[in-house]
Amino acid sequence: MNHLLRSSAPISDAGWSLLDDEARARLEPALGARKVVDFEGPRGWQHSASGLGRTRAIEAASLEGVQARARVVLPLIELRAELELDRAELFDADRGAPDPDLTPLDDAARRIAVAENRLVFHGAGDADGGIVERTPYQVAALGEPGDYPGAVATAVGLLLGSGVGGPYALALGEEPYRLAIASSDRGGYPLVSHLREILGGPIVRAVGLHGAVVLSRRGGDFLLDCGQDLSIGYASHDEAVVNLYIEESLSFRVATPEAAVALSS
Description:
Blueprint: H1 13-27, E1 38-40, E2 49-57, E3 69-75, E4 77-86, H2 87-94, H3 103-122, H4 131-134, E5 140-141, H5 148-161, E6 168-172, H6 174-181, H7 191-199, E7 203-205, E8 212-216, E9 222-226, E10 231-237, E11 241-254, E12 260-264
Parallel strand pairs: 1-9, 5-12, 6-7
Antiparallel strand pairs: 2-3, 4-11, 6-8, 8-12, 9-11, 10-11
């Protein structure tokens, strides 16, 4: 953890504990993607790539009489959300103030949670594609809350028809999740309870996800490889503010595209 330079920051041990607890409280409910895919690690900051179990031939004229092949790997991506905290608020926290203003930390935690979820579900630039882009099924509509059970049951039927076993999970974007937990089905039964019965697995809120995804939780289909897990690091400070960041390194790959069905909102 030395690269985070926390010992160089003008922050007390109690202050760091406060910041870590606050970040954890904000991140835990927002990191929906890692709750429904295979999470491996953390393996540490020096872990740089995920092995794919494949090779490619390379030209090696100087290695006469032998074949040469290079291992194919997926590089990890580093995500960083920067923030600026008022040092006066940290001093007040050390004095025992119960309500220091940590809004910038809350905002940074949300931004990096959105980034991680989008990396998993929607991909990111040159990274391997996300679940929504890789699924081979035609995207169906999630519809209104009363339509959720039918849409989810249809998605589960598609997975079963492709030989993809359960249990299954449902990841919902913020607005679909809000509607789901506030609604009942046509018989007055809580909607989320009805959906869990169809899935046999969890329903999670994933900030940054557009729509919803039904996916198998049998294992081995969606792999999130974590180097450094989410951590707060120190960048710089002056008399008024301290500049920090939340950082992680990870890769994500879809091993079985047919193990998920995307639903548009």
